[in-house]
Amino acid sequence: MNPAKTANGTSLDRLASSSVGQDQMKNFVFGVGLATFCVQVSADQPSLQTMVDCELAGSQHTISLLRGSPIIDSYIYKTRYGQITRFIYDDAEASRGSEVQWQCASDQKNAHAFVVSGEFTSNYLQGALFYFDSTDGKIQRIDFAERNRPRWVKISAQGAQVIFENRGNESSHKYLSYGKNALFLELDEFPVTSKGESLIQLHASKP
User: Fold this and answer.
1) In the predicted model, what is the mean pLDDT of the chain?
2) How far apart are the first and last CA of the chain?
3) Out of 118, 123, 155, 184, which residue is the most buried by the measure of CB atoms under 10 Å away?
4) What angle do CA 80, 85, 87 make, to 5 degrees?
5) What is the structure's pLDDT at 44?
6) Residue 47 neighbours by CB distance under 10 Å
7) Which residues of 59-95 are buried (b: 16+ CB within 10 A; e: fewer)?
8) CA distance to 72, 111, 151, 173, 176, per residue, from 164 (Å)
């Protein structure tokens, strides 16, 4: 039996075979394109290295510090807690820092704090304290910027304080304190630690 033909004499079987071949080629090209796109997306997302995991109130309230995208001696820093990863500051540019130090510290009892500081976008050392606020059951953050790194963290029912020895000329007071709700204090005497409050002494920790 002769194969069916079109008006111009082309075999219908040949047309069907050609159509299948074209579909296969389209699928192949699409697959290659999709694979290339996936590789490019993967390459565009720099890997992050976890530098430290700090338990502030048990494993369910842990904060992690991550960094990536190295350029010379600087990195982009992020934090992760509550299953959310965030830039340590507003965006990637603001979160690129050098000479960054961190410490997961405690009073050897039940108070824990995580402190990060380094050279970011300010002429001063910028940093942040992270601690667990038992009043609202959340990890809270206190930002600071000074000429030197903090020496103490005080935690009470009213929140936390990051305390510095004053080494600048902007104030005549001996101590400087950053607290909850952007509370800034200049002190002549070291803050008294009352019953039920905790004082954590910090030590610089070079990565």
Assistant:
1) 82
2) 83
3) 155
4) 100
5) 43
6) 8
7) eebbbbbbbeeeeeebbbbbbbbeeeeeebbeeeebb
8) 30, 19, 6, 11, 5
pTM: 0.76
DSSP 8-state code for residue 171: -
| Residue 65 reports pLDDT greater than 90 | yes
**Which tokens hold the place of 30?**
């699409």
DSSP 2-51: PPPB-TTS-BHHHHHHHHHHHHHHHHHHHHHHHHHHHHHHHHHS---EEE
Q: Average pLDDT in the 71-88 region? A: 96
AA identity, residue 194: S
Rounded CA separation 100/74 (Å): 9
Each residue's pLDDT tens digit, 141-194: 999 999 999 999 999 988 999 999 998 777 899 999 999 999 999 999 999 999
31-59 pLDDT, tens digit each: 444 443 333 333 345 699 999 999 999 89
Residue for token digits 């509550």? Answer: 82
| Residue 201: alpha-carbon gap to chain centroid | 24
Give residue for tokens 């000479």: 99
